[in-house]
Amino acid sequence: MSFAVIKTGGKQYRVSEGDKLLIEKINTPEGEEFDFEEVLLVGNASAENAKIGQPMVEGAKVTAKVLAHTRADKKIVFRYHNKTRYKKKKGHRQPQTKVEILKIVS
After folding, report:
1. 55: cis peptide before it, omega within 30°?
2. Mean pLDDT of the chain
């Protein structure tokens, strides 16, 4: 079972083939495949054959398929100052993309 550590949207994810995960929104239409070029580590179940990049692994890529574009649950931002009648309530829903990892090429 091979795995990789990829970087996207300012975050790092440990992925294996067949994994489904939510990442920051990317501009790829639903149903299309794309490659993660920023691969930080590629390895398998035994840790002795791991390739660690400095910072990226040369020639490695992870192929994924976009399943859906969604939005996260609403986060409430509430600001309040006591004794001044000041209160503000805002909501925010972060856009995100659901992807499935198809292949890891080292």
Report:
1. yes
2. 94
What's the pLDDT at 106? 84
**Nearest by Cα to 16 from 52, 37, 43, 48:** 43
Q: Is 100 exposed, middle or buried (0-12, 13-18, 19+ CB in 10 A)?
A: middle
Q: Which domain holds residue 65?
A: 3-105
Residues constituting the chain:
106
Contacts 24+ apart (CB under 8 A), 88-94: 94/24
For the chain, the domain total comes to 1
Contact 101, 14 (CB under 8 A): no
